[in-house]
UniProtKB/TrEMBL annotation:
Pfam families, A to Z: EF-G-binding_N (PF07299), FBP_C (PF16571)
Lineage: Bacteria, Bacillati, Bacillota, Bacilli, Lactobacillales
Domain (Elongation factor G-binding protein C-terminal treble-clef zinc-finger): residue spans on this chain: 101-199
The protein, known as: Fibronectin-binding protein [Lactobacillus plantarum WCFS1]
CDD domains reported for this sequence: FusC_FusB
InterPro entries: EF-G-binding_C (IPR032330), EF-G-binding_N (IPR010841), EF-G_N_sf (IPR038344)
Elongation factor G-binding protein N-terminal domain: residues covered: 4-87
């Protein structure tokens, strides 16, 4: 099985399929439904590996009367083998990415859906900290910072979606002087939700450009 679908493409596919399922439930006009189905199929085809039996079964499965939310979810799961997941990192690899952190709280790997993750993010609620590991110029970087316990409604700097966000103050080394500056951004409290909403990796890259630790 060739893994060719990126995690953020999978987020796009999921959003499109869920939209289609909601149209099937709420729109009565069969002509409008047909137009939306055709548009959706065209967009999905451009994201899926062509001439693959999984793709064909998936697309055929969508072309039914009254696609239910449950059936949509089942169909989406059939694509998982084709997704390039976020790598599972060992405690040693994570420690290397966060050298300055003593007693790094580890992410709850068994609960994480790596096929949905463009980046890894987890909270250390007790210490009001958030940790992020994300691809940046072809390698993984670690970002840590203070994470406010106060949740507000707002636009997330990473997924660009309105939701439950909190202020993240990245701790970054500003220059060769050894001083640290703090840069604040509002980002999703729940990084799992954030990843499911992340369809364009450019905003993540822009965010990392601002908050990444500078090398000496
Ligand atoms: Zn987000």
């Amino acid at each position: 099985m060739q893994q060719t679908i990126t995690t953020y493409e999978y987020s796009t596919i999921t959003q499109q399929v869920n939209h289609l399922a909601s149209v099937e439930r709420s729109v009565n006009d069969p002509q409008i439904r047909a137009v939306i189905l055709a548009t959706t199929l065209e967009q999905l085809t451009s994201l899926l590996p062509s001439a693959d039996p999984l793709t064909e079964t998936f697309l055929a499965g969508l072309q039914v009367e009254h696609l239910s939310r449950a059936r949509a979810t089942q169909l989406l799961e059939t694509l998982i083998p084709m997704i390039m997941p976020f790598p599972q990192l060992t405690p040693k690899q994570l420690t290397k990415l966060f050298r300055k952190v003593k007693k790094l709280k580890q992410p709850a790997w068994p609960e994480l859906k790596r096929y949905e993750m463009t980046y890894l993010g987890w909270n250390d609620g007790g210490n009001q900290k958030k940790y992020l590991v994300a691809p940046y110029h072809d390698h993984l970087i670690g970002i840590q910072g203070e994470f406010s316990p106060q949740t507000v409604k707002g636009v997330c700097a990473i997924c660009q979606t309105i939701g439950n966000v909190a202020l993240f103050l990245a701790t970054t080394k500003s220059s060769g002087l050894g001083t640290y500056t703090k840069k604040g951004n509002y980002i999703c409290r729940d990084s799992g939700q954030c990843n499911r909403q992340l369809t364009d990796p450019q905003a993540l890259t822009d965010f990392l450009t601002v908050v990444q630790p500078k090398r000496n």
